[in-house]
Amino acid sequence: MTGSLDFATSEEQQAVAGAVARFCETHAVERAARDTEGDFPLELWRALAAMGIFAPAAPGYEDAGGALELQAICATLGEYAFPGPVAATYAALQVLTGVTREQVMAGDALVSLSGAGDTLLPYGTVAGVFLIAGDDGIHHAEPASAPAAVRTLGGEAWGRAALTASGVLKNSARGLVIGDIARSAYLTGIAARLVRETSEHAATRKQFGKTLGEFQAVSHPLADCAIAVAAANTLAHAAAAAFDARAADDLSPDPIAAARRLAAGAINSARRGALATAYACHQVYGGIGMTLEGPAFHLTRRIRQVASEAPARSREQSILLADAGLGN
Amino acid sequence: MNYGFNSEELAFRDEVREFLADYADLDGFYCQGHRWPEVRSMFSAMAQKNWLALTWPTEFGGLGKGPVHEYILWNEVAYARAARNPLAAGIVAKSIIRYGTAAQRATWLERIRTGDIHFSLCYSEPEAGSDLAGLRLKATLSDDGTCYELNGQKCWQSYAQDMDFLWVLARTGTQDSRGRGLSLFICDKAANGVRVAPLPTLDGDQLNEVFFDGVRVSVEQRIGDENGAWSIIGEALADERHIQFPPGRVRRDLEDLVAWLNDHDLGHDPMVRERMADLAARVLETEMLGRKVLATMVAGGNATVDAAMNKIIHTTVCQDIARAVLDLGGPEALVTGNRPELIWRQSLTETIGGGTSEIMRSVVSRQLLGLGG
Amino acid sequence: MDFDLNEDQQAVLESVERLLAQHAGPARAVALNRAGDYDHDLHAALEAAGFNQIARDLARDDTLAGLEAALTVEAIARSGGVVAAAAQMLVAPALCERTIEGPVAICTVGELTQPTPVRFAAHARSLLVLDDGDAYLVSPAPGTFEPVRTSFGYPMGRLSEGASVEPDREGQALGAGAADTLRNWWRLGLAVEAVGTMDAALGHTVEYLRQRRQFGRTIGSFQAVQHRLSLCAIEVEASRWLTREAAFHNAQPEAVAAAAAYALQAADTLFTETHQLSGAIGFTCEFDLHVWSMRLLALRQELGGVGAARRALVEARWGAA
Ligand SMILES: Cc1cc2nc3c(=O)[nH]c(=O)nc-3n(C[C@H](O)[C@H](O)[C@H](O)COP(=O)(O)OP(=O)(O)OC[C@H]3O[C@@H](n4cnc5c(N)ncnc54)[C@H](O)[C@@H]3O)c2cc1C
Question: Which of B211, C7, C107, C224 has the least C-beta neighbours within 10 A?
Answer without folding.
Answer: C7
